[in-house]
Amino acid sequence: MSETEKNNFVVFEYRDVTVKRDMEALYADSYPSFGWTLEGITNSIKGPIYVTLKFKRDRKIRNKAELTRLQRQFESYAKEIERLEMSKVVGASTVAYVVGVFGTAFMACSVFSYLAGMLPLSIILAVPGVIGWIIPYFCYEKIKSKKTDEVSPIIEQKYDAIYETCEKANRLLNN
Q: Which residue windows are transmembrane per the record (predicted)?
């Protein structure tokens, strides 16, 4: 091996990151700030909503400890964004499901009343049953909209923090 070949030898470290598809662009755009190069994207075994991003970087990168700290900070902000995005629909879904179950219970009581020959009671119970099947959609949309308005500024703050973290990391790489 010649002297120039020895000097050009680079040892890489590798990292696979599994994220939701909607976070793929954020990770693919941000990881290069920490010295990582995107090698490829594959479907994840976790399911169709996940992808695995394959990265590599030089093992002897300068400021590695600080870059790793900033990378962990980025990852915590990204996880917080995922949690906040999920919070938009979890509460709304829960309320919609509960209202739907009550509507179904009323409808079941209506059917049993009808089978027992109590037609007036059956009609009275069918009305809240049908309403309980229609209202969940509107409850879901209203609660989701309210929660979205509530968490959107927080999500924007997290994105700003991510950009600042990536900017700091990028400055360390270029020093």
A: 89-115, 121-140
Q: Are residues 160 and 113 in the same domain?
A: yes
Query: For residue 20, is pLDDT > 70?
Result: yes
The verdict on 76 and 110 lying in the same domain is: yes
Domain range spanning residue 83? 63-174
Tell the burial category of 116 from Cβ atoms under 10 Å away from its Cβ (0-12, 13-18, 19+).
exposed
Number of domains in the chain: 2
Residue with tokens 């479907």: 43
Q: Encode burial over 6-25: b for 16+ CB neighbours within 10 A, e otherwise.
A: eeeeeeeeeeebebbeebbe
The gap from C-alpha 122 to its chain's centroid, in whole angstroms, comes to: 44
Percent of the chain at pLDDT > 90 equals 79
The whole-number pLDDT of residue 11 equals: 83
